[in-house]
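Chain A, query sequence.
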Amino acid sequence: MKKVDKELALSELEKLYPDAKPALHFRTPYELLVAVVLSAQCTDERVNKVTAVLFEKYSTPEAMVTLTQAELEKYIFSCGFYRMKAAHILSASHDILEKFHGEVPSTIEELTSLAGVGKKTANVVYSVAFGGDAIAVDTHVFRVSNRLGLAKGKTPLQVEEGLCKAIPKADWSQAHHWLIWHGRKVCHSQKPNCAGCTLAPYCDYAKKK
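Chain A, predicted structure.
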């Protein structure tokens, strides 16, 4: 994708999704962290149903660690990979209490030091909860970026690095949401709606089709 096409594609994404924001429901950085951990390989809609119940009693790390792993697993079972996610949530909660005085840390380095928190989760929390400039590469961002040619890569890290070069830093966080929403609404995994996509003139994938 040529530089001018990248600029036009980003401009079109901004026009399409001017109010794009996270679909996960949360009230605090801690709730966001838990919700993002649960969202791996799970829909945001499902996560929101689970956290609506979970956060009634366990919306802080202090409350969360009163649960055993087996008890937490029962709450989050429908999100999939529930054993691993429960272990990560409890470990991260203990880390927050023991290393950060009960407050979710606000830097990428500190966030990724939490048990079970990878770069994608850290980027989301840093960007959404603390207003930092970051691009989290989930399956939608990875797919749309590669198809458009905005940033090509075989790994999320490669795509993240490419997007950071292609997009002005001030737009990183918002562009992350633009790409997610485009992946959900138009550029589907199995049957992308290229015929109805206003990004098609700039898209490597659409041009090949």
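The mean pLDDT is 95. The longest helix spans residues 82-99.
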